[in-house]
Amino acid sequence: MPWVFGLSQDADDEVPVRTRLWCTVVMIPAAAFCCLMQCAFAAQRYMDEPQNGMYVWMIVSTLLAFVFPFLLVARSRYPELVFWLCCAVVLVFPYDPMLLLMALTALLARRSSTKRTVRVVGVATVIAVGAHLRDALNTPESSLWHMIFAKPHTGRNGVPLEMLTGETPVVVTAVCVALIEVAIATLIGLHIRSRANLQTVKARADAATSHAATLQSDLNNQQLADAIAAEAHDTLAHSLSLLALNASALQAEAGKLEPSAQTQPLVRQCEDIRRQAAGALDEAHAIIDMLRHPQRAWEQLIPSDETALTRDSLDALVGDARNAGMRLNTWIDIQQLSALDEGIGKIAYRAIQEGLTNARRHAPDAPVSLEVTANPTHGVHVHVSNPAPPTATAKTGATDSTTRATSSSASQTTPAQSPVIQDSARPTRIITPHDGSHSHNGLAGLTARIASAHGACRYGLDERLVFHLDVRLPWIASARR
């Protein structure tokens, strides 16, 4: 439990009350005015005796009446300390208890302990009553209460003060007013505390409601992910398993052939097919597992040696493409890859992989050009291009002019492909349906990932019917440096 100047402050006892600037601006002048007013009346009896020590005391009290109200500025951080200091000020100096009552309200609003509430209200009541009695029991010329009960036009301009009533009503009224002031200050403080507690409870209820809605959304998303994972396991994984099995059988049959110059390339291609099918099956199972266990998905999405943009992974990717029969021309200029952020490197690797896969799927016999540059000055640039297959060219020529003008499909085999490179910054694309092609799904997903990294992705056919995929990513230094 922390201690501040000997006063205990329990964190569980604190109430989150917002201190408003306009309240402080009003409270300080009001407290100073009340202190000055009662101090001015108390000093009347000593005005004719400048050599008296009480005269000096009243001068000091008058000057300090401008200073003590600024204690209220600290009422937010140290409400109990401010209260006890104000109690001491009102006891020692001939001030009105308004300063004390403001400190009482601030303390009751910010602390919820019942024992503390009873204690400070009792102390404030005694001091407030004492401050008013101190004024009421003064000589009539030095008492604000006597001035209130005096006859009009008396007590000033040399006219003697004449009372409308005796001393007892004056004293009783002063005591009653002190009790009423303490009650009002207490009620205001309790009201502010209750309102703050209500806002806290409402905020907690809103947070609980929002959390429940988030949990429900997560549950619905997880149920959808489980359904997708089950469907992928029943269809995609099954098909890839059959592909891997058939590739193994084909490799075994090719191994039975007599070794020759014609059979050796066939055996190697069968081995590549079997290995790639097995790798695709493993990747499918990994994605299915990510759908079923999203809490482990982020761990699997962290860039690894196989998916990061490194010289080894790039060599392996290019080598696999050429081993699969792709006629691939490369222009690669990469520098300081160790200083590149892993997330940017993985997106660049996926861009190269998607470009080669897209070319292999839709233009299997066409030559492919790959350009990769990466350096801190110009960032990361990936460009993949290949001529469109003859089927796409024929279909494009057979498309009517209206369709050609409105289409912006991402697929190389889209019949209505517009002969311009499409920019990922455009808000929408018009995709013309075609039979059996889903290539735009991969490019659309790649575009979204690149946009999330503040990069740019453009793809499409140019006027020579050459398909281009152009990716630019910013150079972000690795945090491990």
UniProtKB/TrEMBL annotation:
Q: State the superkingdom.
A: Bacteria
Question: Which residue ranges are recorded for the region named Disordered?
Answer: 382-439
Report keywords, A-Z. Answer: ATP-binding, Kinase, Membrane, Nucleotide-binding, Phosphoprotein, Transferase, Transmembrane, Transmembrane helix, Two-component regulatory system
Q: What class of enzyme is it?
A: transferase
Q: Name one GO molecular function term.
A: ATP binding
Q: State whether keyword Phosphoprotein applies.
A: yes
Q: Name one GO cellular component term.
A: membrane
The secretion signal range is none
List membrane-spanning regions. Answer: 20-43, 55-75, 81-108, 170-192
Task: Using the record's annotation, list all stretches that form the Signal transduction histidine kinase subgroup 3 dimerisation and phosphoacceptor domain.
Answer: 227-295
Record InterPro entries:
HATPase_C_sf (IPR036890), Sensor_HK_TwoCompSys (IPR050482), Sig_transdc_His_kin_sub3_dim/P (IPR011712)
Please state the Enzyme Commission number of this protein. Answer: 2.7.13.3
Q: Is-annotated flag, keyword Aminoacyl-tRNA synthetase?
A: no
- Here the segments flagged for biased composition (Low complexity) are 391-419
Listed under catalytic activity are:
ATP + protein L-histidine = ADP + protein N-phospho-L-histidine
Which named protein is this? histidine kinase
- Species whose genome carries this gene: Bifidobacterium lemurum
